[in-house]
Amino acid sequence: MPVEDRSWIKPRDNAPIAASAAPAPSAPSRCDGRTHCSQMRSCEEATYFIQHCPNTQMDGDNDGVPCERQWC
Question: What sequence ranges are listed for the domain Excalibur calcium-binding (predicted)?
Fold first, then answer.
């Protein structure tokens, strides 16, 4: 079977496509009942929770830095 000549085809531009989704906020705007590091998605989020929400259990040594083994 003969090979078809495709030299006339223009190569695609491989520039990255911009994401259309809006970026997620870095910190939640309200306390939602989460209290543990395993429920957080970032150090910033954990810090927000220990500073603004009651009964969090994310700063075992009480140094003000939450989730030191996981996020911060």
Answer: 33-68
How far is the C-alpha of 49 from the C-alpha of 31, rounded, in Å? Answer: 7
Domain ranges of the chain: 35-72
- Can you read off the two tokens belonging to residue 3? 């090979």
Mean pLDDT confidence for 32-48: 95
Flag whether the pTM goes above 0.70.
Answer: no
Inter-residue contact 70 to 41 (CB < 8 Å): no
- State the amino acid at position 56 in one-letter form: T
